[in-house]
Predict the structure.
Amino acid sequence: MNDIAVEEVVETTSENIGFIDNMQQFWQDVVNYVSNNYIQMILGVIVIILFLLFRKWLSRNISNIFTKIFKNNLVIGAGIRTSVQGPLKSFFFIFGFYLGFLIMGFPAPVVDFINKIFRISNIVLITWALVNFTPFITSTVIKMEETNKRANAVAIKFIANVLKVIIISLAVVVIISELGYNITGLITGLGLGGLTFSLAAQSTASNLFAGFSIVADKPFDVGDYIVTPSLEGTVEDITMRSTRVRTVADTVVVIPNSKLVDEPITNATRMNKRYVDMTIGLTYDADAATLRNVIEDIKSMLEAHLEIQQDRILVAFKGFGDSSQDIRILYFTKTTALDPSLRVQEDINFKIKDIVEKNGASFAFPSVSIYEEKTDK
């Protein structure tokens, strides 16, 4: 047992001595290389220091060139300048070391390694600049308007995020290929994984694309009053997944976009005038002259009302109901907001009631007449 322990100690000591010898030989080679190429080493260090000192100045001046090139499109110019400033600063930092190492004249294997690192760094920097630029190009494609800035902001964020994912994915594939790996199996795996993910997130994806449809078609904007078969209220927020609506009862309803786009949507805010269609019924004891007087008085009242559009007013004897003589009344209020329009309708209704009572008529209500048949016994 003691002999075995001694052998193990000797082997370990030999390995340590061999490692130390290798390290000493490595550093000896480095010292010899530096001593034989000290001028190149000094020049390389000077180049690295110069690029470190002037990289901010270089990146700022080069990025300002894009503003001058795109002076007719300030949004694009400012977007490019903002997007490339950070990547350019890092590029000159990396390029300084790259050029300095090349000047130092390292052996071919080291140079090949440096070239590969430099190419991968450029891919990363280009990806960085493109990711920074996506919100600017998206905002240019989606024309910004004062009335729908919040909705457009949602679209810009959504599309920009999708573009960022695509750009970063392509960059990762290129970097893997640059490192010498076979990307065919990776792409196949990503395809299967993407299929599985899409099936699992089908509902979410449906809401996202429905949200994009809402933003693109713009059936309503934030602040609009909408009416659908399932809800009615003011739109408070639009996201790519859902829409938040505050109802008349002051409750907040969050409805998935996929459900909202499948329903007919009435945008009351975009109406130029609000349509009112009502029918009143008078009792059958009102004669024809009374009916004509009521119709004429109601029409005159509507024509004189300051809150009623005068392009279309209709008051007509509609016909004979089961228990009433029906008069149909059509008009448009000038205001489209819900509360003011209801106050106008209230005023109209009171005036109609006064007209009916003034002419000695009465409103009918559903009734049933029962006749008793007398028989001789």
